[in-house]
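Minutes, project check-in

Agenda point 3 was the complex the collaborators sent over. CS summarized: two entities, 227 residues total, and the question is how they sit relative to each other. Sequences were read into the notes so everyone works from the same version.
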Amino acid sequence: DTGVSQDPRHKITKRGQNVTFRCDPISEHNRLYWYRQTLGQGPEFLTYFQNEAQLEKSRLLSDRFSAERPKGSFSTLEIQRTEQGDSAMYLCASSLDDNLNTIYFGEGSWLTVV
Amino acid sequence: AQSVTQPDIHITVSEGASLELRCNYSYGATPYLFWYVQSPGQGLQLLLKYFSGDTLVQGIKGFEAEFKRSQSSFNLRKPSVHWSDAAEYFCAGGVIGNEKLTFGTGTRLTIIP
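CS then shared the predicted structure for the full assembly.
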């Protein structure tokens, strides 16, 4: 395991469809974060997990978004009824507990809603 | 409110010239600070980070940054830029007890021959 893996790297979907992104963190990392980055902006925090527990959700995470980490390992981020405004890069990061010195980001998943 | 500000949206530098990218922070406590670089369509690559100790931090690719508490700044510097340094640069901050990073809006660096 050499880093945080995200899949798919790119996704083009039609408006109204559902999409799901997967993140595999560094194996010993028990914290997992999701960020969203729109064009021309810095990444913005969406949510994070400590093991399987989702501990905080940003108000950016509308009802159409749901994130899970069922076994405390990989995580999924699902967007239902996608809208054009959902077009962005979705970044996953992981860390060991709250030690920000150990945080690593994945390569991101690009979503284009047409 | 906790925030990270990058005042410069876009900077153009000649190849071989020195570079300084500005980052200002606003936190109640001493933050942990990071600089990331992002090429188009790619993820974030960590250049360097400051947690404590020496306020001058060395990073990869010849970059360094200096933490200045009195100025609430963490500016990124490089003595001589290369064409391959053209990218988007992000400053980010976090504090223990607030388990997320706050990013600036980024500075796009263009290198001219």
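Noted in discussion: The longest strand of chain B covers residues 87-95.
Follow-up: revisit at the next meeting once the mutant set is ready.
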